[in-house]
Amino acid sequence: MMMLTKKMIEIRGLLQTVGQSETLSLPSIVVIGSQSSGKSSVLEAIVGHEFLPKGSNMVTRRPIELTLVNTPDAHAEYGEFPALGLGKITDFGQIQRTLTDLNLAVPVQDCVSDDPIQLRIYSPNVPDLSLIDLPGYIQVTGRDQPIELKEKITELCEKYIRAPNVILAISAADVDLANSTALRASRKMDPRGERTIGVITKMDLVDAERGAALLSDKKYALRLGYVGVVCRAPTTSSPRLFNRGNGNITSAITKNENTYFSSHPEFGAESHLDVGTKNLKKKLMHVLEQTMAASLKTTSEAIQHELENATYEFKVQYNERPISAESYLAESLDAFKHSFRGFSEQFGRQQVRELLKHELDQQVLNLLAQRYWNRPFEDLSRPLPERDPLSGLMKADPEGEDEIWQIKLDSSSAALTKLGVGRLATSVVANALQTHIDRLISASRFSSHPFARQAITEASTSILKDLSYDISDELEICIKPYKYRIEVEDNEWAKGRQNVTNVLKDELKVCELAAKQLEEQMGGRKKVKDVSSFIDRVRSGQVVLEGDGVGGAGGFSSALLQKGREAVFLRDRVDVLKMRLLAVKSKQCASKKNKYHCPEVFLDAVADKLTTTADLFLDAELLSKFYYIFPRELDARLGRSLSQAEIDRFAREDPKIRRHLDVVRRKDLLEHVLREMDSLRQLEAREKRYGNKK
Ligand code: GDP
After folding, report:
1. pLDDT tens digit sequence for 414-465
2. 33: Cβ below 6 Å to ligand 1?
């Protein structure tokens, strides 16, 4: 028969996880009593341990849903707070402290909270019971307590002592029962006294005759009767407690009660009075079981109804698509790895080559600008001879020019090869990979999951960082030979010439576009011309600026002068680029024999050689390794190493998935509960048939 209560308490726990629906709960025993009525002592006597918060300052501010689980074969006694995840607590002092903390966390101005604390206690000495301890009724409000406290407690208690719950009304024997707040409250909600058990505590404080009279009270007759208890042993050293510490107090109480009640004939067997904690426990078990059994049918129906709702939602909203946090994660991960594979097939040596060449083209342009193209600017007052494309450069060095040009080219190509190509190329490719990964994440399901986003980004950055470290050094070694000697073949020369022509053309376009934008900003071509010619005159020394020109000069504001300088720079750059384009295209640059006068072509050819070495190396070392390691690292970070809680948290980050998961979970749980209920009802029917015969 006890099976039934145990099972139903289990089901009660399951239903609690489904949600706080009032129709969806099985009955419990609700304990009420005024402060100091001995309520805590009764509960502790049932549990066998001191574990409830103590103190004068209203320490119970939240309901405590106490589930007692009988574990006949176990020795250990322990408690668990399912919502806190603290694990098994074998020290009842710690349970007491935790309860105290949880209660004191309710702000004083809120008085009480109706959010219950769930506590389970497992022990071979407790019966299977589900009890709810409520804040004690207060008679007078204390100085530091809000006035509405009394009302709030009453409200809270009334909410809990509704049918089908059983009311355990605690009153002290030394207080007139007519004044018992607990009995008054229960009478209000259960006027016919059908589901109230009266407990009279402190029986030792009144004489036996009066005590016996209390237990057979006729004024508020209870169908379930009254039970008299003495939940405190008369010790002198410790007035409150039987034995402090973790020891079980059940037997001490029973012994004390036995001594007391057997010494008074008023409580003898013929009296048919119910006394003692042991009897109280039995009664509670019996009543709870009866009540649970009686509400099986209605609860089943309520669950059936909820299940229909959940099933309907699952069908209409989610097309009955099954989902679990694991499957969602696994699918998301697969999809991401698939898109990564797609990317890795498209991003290979050719793409690396383009990236690197572009980067080195820019480096070549910078070198040229620094070492060659600034030369004519030194003497801008002299008009650039347009007819001869090379003269602008060559005429600056009329004497010994070949030697100078030779030195210049050698140092320029050395500057290029000693640029730190190893590190530059590696970081360009690593950055590109990272950018692509970021793009893949944004386009994936993971985009709405901060946790996963971070895990993936961290995976790729850490792999790329690790790989880059060695690779950039090794690549630097690979290009080492070019630092000493560079041979350019004819076909390489031709290719370089072609490529650099395009680079110069592109650069020319960029400069022209920038010049045009500047012109618009400055207010037209005429304005640009005026400002530019003023700047030219300043440069050539024809005009001397007063001061630093911060406040403007020549009738132009300083902002305009600043833009003017940019315009002059771009104009000169455009001139040079046009000139050099002509030079590169000229016959002279068609052959590598004239390489010293065609630095653009030569440097391009060098850049091309460096690129070829680097792309081969990076393809083999960086790409292949990254493509191999990254998916495995993803598995490690988002697959195996995650706990169930982390997987759940991940999936629930997406509100859509969270709702989907909730419906599925609710549906599964309700189905499970319903199956359990059905088997219980069968069990109950069987027990009735056979039990009655016994
Ligand atoms: P609560 O405020 O209703 O939880 O009451 P407690 O359980 O804390 O008890 C109030 C006081 O009454 C404490 O000092 C207890 O030691 C004492 N007390 C509780 N039960 C008994 C009893 O059966 N006999 C005697 N003499 N004192 C008791």
Report:
1. 989 988 999 999 999 999 999 999 999 999 989 988 888 999 999 999 999 9
2. yes
Helices 349-368 + 401-417 axis angle, to 10: 140
Confidence check on the interface: ipTM exceeds 0.85, yes or no: yes
- Cα distance between residue 45 and residue 281, in whole Å: 9
Asked if 59 contacts 83 with a C-beta cutoff of 8 angstroms, the reply is no
pLDDT, residue 574, reads 93
Distances in Å between the Cα of 500 and the Cα atoms of 23, 136, 493, 576, 595 are 81, 90, 10, 15, 14
pTM of the model as a whole? 0.63
Give the nearest ligand 1 atom to 44 CA: 7
State how beta strands 226-228 and 196-201 pair: parallel
Ligand 1 atom showing the smallest separation from residue 239 Cα? 16
Measured in Å, residue 277 CA sits from the centre of ligand 1 at 14
pLDDT on residue 546: 65
Q: Residues 325, 326, 327, 332: is their CA dihedral positive or negative?
A: positive
Pocket flag, ligand 1, residue 38 (CB < 6 Å): yes
**Cα–Cα distances in angstroms (integers) from residue 185 to residues 168, 173, 190, in the given order:** 11, 17, 8
Please confirm whether the linkage preceding 164 is cis (ω < 30° from 0). yes
- Give me the torsion for CA of 537, 540, 542, 546, rounded to 10°: 80
Q: 636: Cβ–Cβ under 8 A, 6 or more apart, which residues? A: none
Does the C-beta of 201 come closer than 6 Å to ligand 1?
A: yes
Question: With a 6 A CB cut-off, is 171 part of the ligand 1 pocket?
Answer: no
Residue 198 bridge partners (DSSP): 169, 226
Q: From ligand 1's centre to the CA of 255, what distance in Å? A: 17
> What is the torsional sign of CA 16, 20, 25, 28?
positive
Low-confidence ranges of the chain (pLDDT < 70): 1-2, 19-23, 56-58, 140-146, 233-246, 375-402, 545-552, 691-694
DSSP code, position 510: H
Question: If you measure from the C-alpha of residue 265 to the centroid of ligand 1, how many angstroms do you get, rounded to a whole number?
Answer: 24
Tell me which residue has its CA closest to atom 18 in ligand 1. 38
Of the candidates 316, 290, 246, the one whose C-alpha atom is nearest the C-alpha of residue 79 is 246
The whole-angstrom separation of Cα 128 and Cα 131 is 10
For 80, residues 6+ apart whose C-beta sits below 8 A from its C-beta are 86, 87, 88, 89, 119, 120, 121, 122
Please report the atom of ligand 1 found closest to the CA of residue 234. Answer: 26
> What are 34's strand-pairing partners?
137
Contact call for residues 430 and 608 (beta carbons, < 8 A): no
Q: Which of 134, 232, 241, 242 to mutate to test the pocket of ligand 1 (most atoms within 8 A of CB)?
A: 232
Give the per-residue pLDDT at 30.
96
For residues 102 and 62, what is the distance between their CA atoms, to the nearest angstrom? 8
Computed from CA positions of residues 659, 664, 668, 674, in that sequence, does the dihedral angle turn out positive or negative?
A: positive
Report the distance separating Cα 18 and Cα 512, nearest Å. Answer: 69
Within 10 Å of residue 315's Cβ, how many Cβ atoms?
12
Q: Whose CA is nearest to atom 17 of ligand 1?
A: 38
Cα torsion 217, 220, 222, 226: sign: negative
The closest-lying atom of ligand 1 relative to the alpha carbon of residue 203 is 23
Secondary structure letter of residue 200 according to DSSP: E
Q: Are 683 and 3 in contact (CB under 8 A)?
A: yes
Tell me the CA–centroid distance for residue 363 and ligand 1, in Å: 89
Asked if residue 230 has its Cβ within 6 Å of ligand 1, the reply is: yes
Tokens 């037997």 correspond to what residue?
251
Does residue 182 have its Cβ closer than 6 Å to ligand 1?
Answer: no
Give 199: exposed, middle or buried? Use CB within 10 Å, 0-12, 13-18, 19+: buried
> What number does the ligand 1 atom closest to the CA of 229 have?
23
